TrEMBL record:
GO terms for molecular function: oxidoreductase activity, acting on paired donors, with oxidation of a pair of donors resulting in the reduction of molecular oxygen to two molecules of water. Pfam families: FA_desaturase (PF00487). It comes from Prauserella muralis. Residues 352-373 are annotated as: Disordered. InterPro entries: FA_desaturase_dom, Fatty_acid_desaturase. Residues 65-331 form the Fatty acid desaturase domain. GO terms for biological process: lipid metabolic process. Transmembrane segments: none annotated. It comes from the Bacteria. GO terms for cellular component: membrane. This is Fatty acid desaturase. Residues 363-373 have a biased composition (Basic and acidic residues).
Amino acid sequence: MTGLQDRLTPEQVEEFGRELDELRQRIVDDLGEDDVAYIKRIIKTQRGLEAAGRALLFAGFFPPAWLAGVGALSLSKILDNMEIGHNVMHGQYDWTRDPALSSQRFEWDNVAPAENWRHSHNYIHHTYTNILDKDRDVGYGILRIDPDQKWHPYYLGNPVYAVLTALFFQWGVMLHDLEVDRLVKGERTWSEFADVRARIVRKAAQQLGKDYVLFPLLTGPLAPLTLAGNASANLARNLWAFAVIFCGHFPSDVESFTEEETERESRGQWYLRQILGSANLTGGPLFHVLTGNLSHQIEHHLFPDIPSRRYPMIAPQVRAICAKYGLPYHTGPLHKQLFSVAKKIVRLALPGSGRAADPEPTTLERDRDLKAA
């Protein structure tokens, strides 16, 4: 837990917010044909990979063809969910007025219905980022992922729940909208979720029918291999999405907040909370595309409705603004951030505050130590 209001003076917060507003406006003013061409190119690539993957599974009796089919289909599902679906449904391309890029019309290759996801993610998560008891993405109602979550013997299973969440990530996203933990506690009733349930049933039936009935049957005697290939592609997408999303939200130096300290929050304070509550991943251009540019989680949390291809371009400017105000800019390679998340999950399974006696230094502190050396 951080003292959010102690980071900057009121005057600094106002100036900090103004600088980020100006950065955002420069991006908005520059949006145009290059952004549209980019997302359409990604969509074309995704569709090509899906077609290639499905076709290769028709030759699944030949192991290299089966493996290639699974690989192509996995990449297709990753692109569909990460760089296309997640970003289009954020409204990043609503300004184009293209029905194919409309946040309200887009549906992704995932068992979680787009309409449910837009509420729980776009509204709840991005409004209340890392606010305990408000942002349901903190632990997803399953995990103890923050030391200020009260410990219960249930959390002894934290590592097991995390592994299951990774394996069945799309199903976890789907069930997230039902708020099962609150249903169990009696805080909500099933009748309140009638519409949510109806959308879940329809979408799950469509996805299961497509991947585990229709396409396997189309390959005739190879149906078992095709079913296994589709399941493998879904598993690959689940594991990748879990790793990227958890590394953007839950490494050791990412901070959480209380409802009290975020009351009557100004625009500048909201920006500040996004930076303190997010972490980036380092990597090359292809890596960033495959993460849906959520490897730039800080920039995404600051500007969730800006096309994701812009995040790598503005990241140096955001980092410079953070350095100017003495703020941390959490970033690191995937393996290190994932290890940090894993340590936290295991540590917080045990009773106690879960806070390390000597917290890991923030990226800013590491940078200063290196310069001093």
